[in-house]
Amino acid sequence: MSKLVATAIAVVATAAAAVVAAAEPPAGAAACSGCHPASPRVLSPVPRLAGVDQAAIVRALLEFRSGQRPATVMDRIAKGFTDDEIRALAAWFATRP
Amino acid sequence: MKASRRAFIKVGVAATAAAALRPVRTFAQGAAARVVVVGGGFAGASCARALRQAAPRVTVTLVEANPTFTACPFSNAVIGGLRELHAQRFTYERVAGDGIMVARALATGVDAQARSVTLADGARLPYDRLVLAPGIDIRWGALPGYDEAAAAQMPHAWRAGEQTLLLRRQLEAMDDGGLVVISAPANPFRCPPGPYERASLIAHYLKTRKPRSKLVILDAKDAFSKQRLFQAAWAELYPGLLEWVPLSRGGNVTSVDASTRTLVTDFGRHQAKVANVIPPQKAGRIAEAAGVADRTGWCPIDPVTFESKLQAGIHVIVDAAIAGAMPKSAFAANSQAKTCAAAVARLLTGAVPSTPKLINTCYSLVAPDYGISVAGVYQPSGGQLAEVPGSGGVSPADAPRATRAAEAVLAEAWFRTITAEVFG
């Protein structure tokens, strides 16, 4: 229950921060497009993130971080992000066009 | 003479005081802010475009002398005969299409007080904030015997283009059984794993085309990026062909003689058939002219905004900057450029920049189907960009060949993605 509340607060806080910053990407988000194509025209085995379900991104990053999900580099990168940062990243990409 | 000099100093002091008293211009209402970005590589082009997106009202000018950009990542594959140089070339059409003014000119000076950039033709570009992304310059003269004329005999190929092709042609012209020597510089320099990827792909060329040849890396260091992975792969793929000579075993090149392609170390002389001298480097020339480079030749910056610690209003990104633990790579360029653009957008409206988190991922090819990587996550800490504890690292030492093959595919996908992101 308290975890749910914390999540809700984090989501609200993230949303508020997004409004204040006029849709500025959260910490770390700008770097992802180095490998995850922003453009649908780019041919890559690395998936695009724009519009991907928020919960799916959170789950993927948490599993990469814990080592549950097989990875080449994403395990090493996910270890650099906190739970809150992961949620903010997921919320950001889920709403990208 | 004396009087006029004193008068000049007085005027100078007055001007400085006025600048200090002048309120910081912000652009929340009305007036369009002007940002000039110098350098159209991965860093500069990415920063200009990100700024345009973050702050559409800002007038962004990108100053770049070359009509096309020639990418360094994957240029080692060109040297090794696996790729053609045209695949490395990108134009600024799409950058200009974003509404960025692309000034094809050489920036020769910066007046940090007046806030203007001087171009080679004498024109001045006023700015509210300046971003310098000039990449590297060769520190000519730091290695005795290695000057611009010597580079025509012993190419550095550390800025992609004609130098890349020159090194490739020399390898193609060499008879089987020849000695190829690469000299690798001390830290810091552009692309830390680059010399070793290059050695790998030249070794691949020699193994498949000129198998009686030999490759020696003379290194000014005792350790290098992804070292264990490279060395394990070399032992597996290129045994007896590739030799790495570290500093402690006489690897430090102290002078070169271009006329005989000789590299001299404290321990001996190496006469090469083909010599690739990767020389000591420094921040691109404009950094010195702008007064943002320190005695090391590189530019100290604030890790949140990338603003110079030496000159207000000037930001320095990537290769030219002292970015703490972050390497000088194209991935880092895109990451730093966007972080800097977000900070500049905020500073222009008087807002406080948010604390960034940056990522680097860097692939190296040891063979066409054998890739390895290093990744890192960085954040400001103690006035520097530091690695987030527990994050990052290199590919596993015990990964199967399928993983190496997958990373080679990912390396190429990365290049397609990042070049589309920055220039497409």
Features:
heterodimer; A: 97 residues; mainly alpha; Cytochrome Bc1 Complex, Chain D, domain 2; B: 424 residues; FAD/NAD(P)-binding domain; five-stranded parallel sheet; 25 strands; 25% strand
Identify the CATH architecture of chain A: Orthogonal Bundle
Task: State the share of residues found in helices of chain B, binned by percent.
Answer: 25-40%
Secondary structure category of chain B: alpha/beta
**Helix-strand category of chain A:** mainly alpha
Number of helices of chain B: 10
Summarize the structure.
In chain A, 55% of the residues lie in helices and 0% in strands. Chain A contains five helices and no strands.
Task: Give a written overview of the molecule.
Chain A is mainly α. Chain A has a single domain, classed as Cytochrome Bc1 Complex, Chain D, domain 2, CATH 1.10.760.10. Chain A is built from five helices and no strands. Chain A has helices at residues 2-20, 29-32, 54-66, 74-78, 83-94. In chain A, helix 1 (2-20) crosses helix 5 (83-94) and helix 3 runs antiparallel to helix 5. Chain A starts with a helix and ends with a helix. With 424 residues, chain B is α/β, with parallel strands linked by helices. Chain B has a domain at 32-137 and 282-354: FAD/NAD(P)-binding domain (3-Layer(bba) Sandwich). Chain B is built from ten helices and 25 strands. Chain B has helices at 2-21, 42-54, 75-79, 93-97, 162-173, 194-209, 227-237, 285-290, 330-348, 401-423, and strands at residues 34-38, 59-63, 68-70, 89-91, 101-103, 107-111, 116-119, 124-126, 129-132, 136-138, 179-184, 214-219, 242-245, 253-257, 262-265, 269-271, 274-277, 281-283, 299-300, 314-316, 321-322, 358-367, 370-381, 384-387, 393-394. The longest helix of chain B has 23 residues, at 401-423. The model of chain B is unreliable at 1-23 (pLDDT under 50). At the A-B interface, helix 2 of A face helix 9, strand 22, strand 23 and helix 10 of B.
